[in-house]
Design brief:
The complex is a heterodimer of chains A (173) and B (693).
Chain A lengths: L2 E7 L2 E7 L5 H8 L18 E4 L2 E4 L12 E3 L1 H4 L7 H8 L9 H16 L19 H7 L10 H12 L6
Parallel strand pairs in A: 1-5
Antiparallel strand pairs in A: 1-2, 3-4, 3-5
Helix pairs in contact in A: 3-6
Chain B lengths: L18 H6 L14 E7 L5 E7 L1 H4 L4 E5 L22 E2 L5 E7 L2 H10 L1 E6 L18 E2 L3 E2 L2 E3 L2 H7 L2 E9 L11 E7 L2 E6 L4 H12 L6 E4 L14 H12 L5 E4 L15 E9 L5 E13 L12 H4 L4 E11 L12 H19 L3 H7 L17 H12 L11 E3 L2 E13 L7 E8 L2 E5 L9 H13 L6 E4 L16 H20 L8 E5 L12 E13 L5 E11 L6 H20 L5 E2 L4 E2 L17 E6 L18 H4 L1 H13 L16
Parallel strand pairs in B: 1-14, 12-13, 16-17, 21-22, 25-28
Antiparallel strand pairs in B: 1-5, 2-4, 2-6, 3-5, 7-8, 9-17, 10-15, 11-12, 11-14, 15-16, 18-19, 19-24, 20-21, 20-23, 24-25, 26-27
Helix pairs in contact in B: 8-9, 8-15, 11-12, 13-15
């Protein structure tokens, strides 16, 4: 009863057979050996498995692989295309925005997705003027928008400036 | 003692050397060592808290395509040593706590294993269980020692008499709840038997340590077991040896030749891998009219499991913190039908100092003294417990520098005074302390690779602590080499033995071994070694161990804002100053301090594992209901440290920093909440309901 699906992961076309119960996360990790997305809770509560799914951040543990046949996926590994670290990845290292590193790929992918959301003017719970159509990415906005990604080592205090610095160009002019 | 004199690398704020692997997600954690056709284990957990398994019907599970085997206590291979009941998994039908493993499915896919486990029917002879810790139990007992080997009770002078005679007295009880470590990486084992050799890819804080115990339990020669753990996704005390690892090894034995992967689910992490015991702590303080403590008493009650004892040392920090001639500390335990509690970041100190430092705040107010001044007034000249001088003690410097940075001088001591719209605003302070711990048995090997490069090998662990970077810095200075010329290998029992990453002991224990090995290397091979030259040495005992009391200290200041309508607490800023010897890497050290304080914020405001007494399990066993701090919960952290020279602790002059960050945080926040609201919360966590009048 396995199902054939195709995924484009980090720019590479992958054809796999999956059990319909298989999550995107397990498909990536157990079928394809792509371990950037981590399993922290398997319930969409920690964000360690965050990927860019067709351009938007998503928790891959809450997505069934069969429901995403043909999807385009970017993981933390794909962000470092050609072996060069993404500016967000460099910023995380410079700001020491991680310790054990297990939530880190999810944090970074989430941050990249979040910046695109802010750029597009999406408001958050702490946005004061939701009709403005543009977002000033304050530390409060970053904290709010990154709260789906838990870090038990407590690196938030460094994650916020790491993102703020990378966001530089994303602020409204 | 060998000391390092030239230190260009130690003290440099280097980026983490494992950074590129971690930010790309390519650092292999235990589950991520890839195998082509692994098998997957999923456990069946007991649905009763006490009793006996009478029947297991695995027929439906076994009939599923892809199921390889179902292990029960009848079919599982026997262990050689079952004296540690926590590790004697599937050896008998007894159930000692709810959530205990009573069966396990091994299957070709994770989905099949999990579904098959849900089909296993287990019948029980259920017996009444006892899972509630209360101070009025009549079966509280005194353990032989408390963790790891402190005396259970201590007494100096006549506390009762001194307390009765005190001009100012405090007698209050403080409670802290059960808490769970919740490292982001679940506890994971990939086990592979090859003939008589067992290899484990393991998420562990101490490969050598768990190998020794595991070999004994399995009845194997240690050399037949290899544990590999180069990257570990957090531990906080929980990633030692628990039944899950033994279970994976037994399953792999049954399916010899196939790797068996077993990662706990988040929910399973709430029953099988330890927790911080709840505590009930009575503090009595007596002071003279000048605000000097003359009587100090700390009585702590905790729980343990009937199957195995763990005695949290909650009253131990009170033995060293403040002066006061007449003193008493006691520890009592209730043995319950519960999983075994264990070390959780700053065991003893974290709950104990919440109680003591809350009491110190209350006492300062009763004495009419500023809480900083009250602490300084009670600074001991020598360690009150041992009578030894301190190798270094800079608590007062931390308090003064912290007060300066935080802006404490302007504080009006009157509680419930500052209001900012709906927000009631207050500030609080608490002290921190953590002992300098050195574990024996660490060995380092240094080899010359040519072209100026050295290989440093030691089975140390990096659980997020920065070991990959800090040990390279120590080796560089010990060898008088450039840090870029140090290749470090850690996290594998094929390397020389190292002690566990626990008790904030890693740098002291492992670094001392590396310094010793470097000295041996230079003695033998000089400064122009040939490629392949090698030396190995073990960390010596500290010759000053019995001459000085050795502790790190700190002071934590917090601002709390409490919503007058909802009781919501926010902590917009904290300042902490530490005196923790020489800081090996300021960048990663700052992260560790902040990380500990962030966990302390969770301890103060969020974290509480709620046990349902009817069933004996933790109800809120996931991240949706056991809330650990999220990004939006945190505010500004201002971190500093005293430049402390301590020639007695170890060759680096460093003290452990992994745990001290959490120690004073909860009390500092509780004290700030009191200042903001006038409400003294003595029962963690400080949830909104406790602040609504």
């Amino acid at each position: 009863m396995d199902v054939d699906i195709t995924l484009q992961v980090d720019g590479i076309q992958q054809q796999i057979e999956v059990d319909p119960r298989t999550t995107l996360l397990d498909a990536l990790r157990e079928r394809l050996g792509i371990y950037g997305p981590k399993k922290g809770c398997d319930h969409g509560q920690c964000g360690a498995c965050t990927i860019l799914l067709d351009g938007r951040r998503a928790v891959s543990c809450l997505a069934l692989a069969v429901a995403h046949d043909g999807a385009e996926i970017i993981t933390s590994q794909g962000l470092a295309a050609g072996g060069e670290l993404h500016p967000m990845q460099r910023s995380f290292i410079e700001h020491d925005a991680f310790q054990c590193g297990y939530c880190t790929p999810g944090q970074i992918v989430s941050a990249v997705g979040m910046l695109a959301e802010a750029e597009a003017g999406w408001p958050s719970h702490v946005t004061t003027d939701i009709s403005a159509g543009q977002v000033l990415l304050t530390d409060e906005e970053i904290r709010e928008r990154m709260s789906g990604n838990l870090c038990r080592c407590g690196a938030y205090a460094n994650i916020v400036p790491a993102i703020r610095e990378t966001a530089g160009g994303a602020r409204p002019r | 003692m060998t000391t390092i004199t030239k230190r260009p690398a130690i003290g440099a704020p280097l980026d983490r050397r494992d950074g590129p692997q971690k930010v790309t997600g390519t650092a292999p954690y235990a589950y991520e060592h890839h195998f082509d056709k692994p098998l997957y284990l999923f456990p069946v957990q007991s649905e009763v808290a006490r009793g006996r398994v009478t029947r297991i019907d695995a027929s439906a599970a076994e009939a599923l395509p892809g199921v390889v085997t179902v292990l029960t206590h009848d079919s599982t291979p026997r262990l050689a040593d079952t004296s540690d009941h926590e590790l004697a998994v599937l050896q008998a039908g007894d159930v000692a706590f709810r959530g205990q493993y009573v069966a396990a499915v091994v299957a070709q896919t994770l989905e099949t294993a999990r579904y098959a486990a849900s089909l296993v029917r287990v019948s029980y002879d259920e017996e009444p269980h006892d899972v509630e810790l209360r101070a009025d139990r009549d079966d509280l007992y005194a353990p032989e020692v408390v963790n790891p080997d402190y005396p259970t009770d201590t007494q100096e002078g006549d506390f009762d008499r001194a307390f009765a005679a005190a001009a100012v007295r405090l007698d209050e009880t403080y409670t802290t709840p059960m808490e769970h470590h919740n490292p982001m990486e679940p506890h994971t084992t990939v086990a592979l038997w090859d003939g008589s050799d067992l290899t484990l890819y393991e998420s562990t804080q101490g490969p050598h340590w768990i190998r020794g115990t595991l070999a004994q339990v399995l009845g194997l020669d240690q050399d037949r077991v290899r544990v590999i753990a180069p990257y570990v996704g957090g531990g906080f005390g929980s990633k030692t040896l628990h039944a899950n690892t033994v279970l994976a090894a037994l399953a792999a034995q049954v399916v010899e030749g196939s790797p068996v992967k077993f990662a706990l689910t988040r929910q399973q992490m709430f029953s099988g891998v330890g927790y911080r015991t709840p505590t009930i702590q009575r503090i009595r303080l007596g002071a003279d009219s000048g605000g000097r403590l003359i009587a100090v008493c700390h009585d702590a009650i905790m729980q343990t499991a009937k199957t195995k004892e763990f005695a949290e040392q909650a009253a131990v920090p009170t033995r060293t913190m403040y002066a006061g001639q007449s003193r008493r500390t006691t520890h009592r335990l209730a043995a319950l039908d519960v999983p075994v509690p264990t070390w959780m970041r700053a065991p003893g100190e974290a709950p104990g100092m919440f109680a003591l430092e809350s009491a110190m705040d209350e006492m300062a107010i009763s004495c009419g003294l500023d809480p900083v001044e009250f602490r300084i007034r009670n600074e001991p000249e020598i360690d009150p417990e041992t009578g030894l001088p301190y190798s270094s003690r800079n608590l007062v410097a931390c308090l003064l520098e912290g007060a300066r940075r935080f802006g404490w001088a302007d504080r009006n001591p009157q509680p419930h005074l500052r209001q900012d719209g709906r927000w009631q605003v207050g500030t609080g302070v608490a002290s921190s302390e953590f002992p300098v711990v050195r574990f024996a048995g660490s060995v380092a090997r240094i080899s010359y690779l040519g072209s100026g490069r050295y290989l440093v090998a030691i089975d140390a662990s990096d659980i997020g602590t920065g070991t990959w970077t800090a040990l390279a810095q120590i080796a560089a200075d010990a060898l008088d080499a450039d840090v870029d010329n140090i290749d470090l290998r850690i996290g594998d029992t094929s390397l020389p033995e190292a002690s566990v990453a626990g008790g904030s002991s890693g740098i002291t224990s492992w670094g001392s071994a590396i310094v010793e090995a470097a000295r041996a290397f230079r003695d033998r091979h000089g400064h122009n070694p040939a490629e392949g030259d090698q030396a190995e040495a073990s960390a010596p005992e500290n010759p000053y161990a019995n001459n000085y009391a050795m502790h790190a200290f700190g002071a934590c200041f917090a601002e709390a804002r409490v919503d007058a309508d909802t009781g919501e607490v926010r902590v917009p800023r904290m300042t902490a100053v530490f005196a923790a010897g020489r800081i090996i890497n300021p960048k990663t050290a700052r992260s560790q301090f902040i990380g500990g304080m962030t966990m302390g914020l969770g301890m103060a405001l969020h974290e509480e594992s709620l046990v349902d007494p009817r069933f004996g399990h933790v109800l809120n066993h996931d991240f949706a209901s056991y809330h650990i701090p999220a990004n939006a919960d945190t505010g500004q952290f201002d971190i500093a440290w005293i430049d402390e020279e301590d020639p007695y602790v170890n060759p680096m002059g460093s003290k452990g920093i992994g745990e001290i960050g959490i120690v004073g945080t909860a009390a500092a926040i509780a004290n700030a909440v009191y200042h903001a609201t006038g409400i003294r919360v003595r029962d963690l966590p400080i949830t909104p309901a406790k602040l609504l009048r």
